[in-house]
Design a protein that fits this description.
Blueprint: E1 2-6, H1 10-17, E2 24-26, H2 29-34, H3 39-49, E3 53-57, H4 63-74, E4 80-85, H5 88-99, E5 104-109, H6 112-120, E6 125-128, H7 130-135, H8 140-154, E7 159-162, H9 168-177, E8 181-184, H10 186-191, H11 196-214
Parallel strand pairs: 1-2, 1-8, 2-3, 3-4, 4-5, 5-6, 6-7, 7-8
Length: about 220
């Protein structure tokens, strides 16, 4: 499974990248605006740090305008994957962009049928939002299982990118369901390392070592 970070914060990206296990980044206009950064410039900065896919989202809503904006975003860096919403125009734009060999991440997916449309349009990634489904008392991870099964049934190459992951259990469950990618807020990424028994076990090992050296 690939680990992506869902952020536009350079400090967080640099820290996570230092572990050597970060595979990519997902961004959106809200995340970049939160950093007070220029959209295109921040995408370029991220691509220069991370050797992996960086999703950059369009803000246009009509297919032809998405196509024009998507082409511009793709030219920022080879790592850029153009992110479009799962709307009628978004699917049209996905088909047009993918036909030009521009990779597309179709976002805001909430049903298996929507994921099937994206795959047929040539999406490189599909981004189902598990946390937002959980928030309305639906089972987000059931959607991941359904999409993985459908894609496997028909041999679609579209990768399932689990988005809106709210905690470590979402990561584990997405991996068990066969998702190709999970994208995480930085605090959730850091929590993957932690367990109290790891901490107490290490403390005991070190204490025992110190005692052995005293004699």
């Amino acid at each position: 499974m690939k680990f992506f970070l869902d952020t536009a914060n350079i400090e967080q990206i640099t820290k996570a990248n230092a572990y050597g296990i970060l595979d990519g980044i997902t961004t959106n206009p809200s995340l970049i605006a939160k950093e007070g950064a220029d959209h295109a410039q921040r995408i370029l900065e991220i691509c220069q740090i991370v050797d992996g896919d960086v999703s950059a989202e369009v803000v246009e809503t009509e297919a032809e305008a998405m196509l024009t904006e998507g082409r511009k975003l793709a030219k920022i860096h080879d790592n850029v994957v153009v992110k479009v919403p799962l709307t009628r125009d978004g699917i049209k734009a996905t088909k047009m962009l993918s036909s030009e060999r521009i990779r597309v991440n179709v976002t805001l997916c909430f049903t298996a049928n929507q994921a099937l449309l994206a795959a047929k349009a040539g999406a490189y990634y599909i981004s189902p939002f598990v946390g937002r489904l959980d928030d309305i008392s639906a089972e987000g991870m059931e959607l991941i299982r359904d999409i993985v099964t459908i894609y496997d049934n028909y041999g679609y190459p579209t990768q399932v990118l689990t988005a809106s992951a709210r905690g470590p259990l979402h990561v584990r469950d997405a991996a068990l369901c066969g998702a190709h990618v999970v994208t995480l807020p930085y605090p959730v990424f850091e929590k993957l390392f932690d367990h109290p028994l790891t901490d107490s076990g290490l403390a005991q090992f070190l204490a025992d070592y110190r005692k052995s050296q005293e004699g």
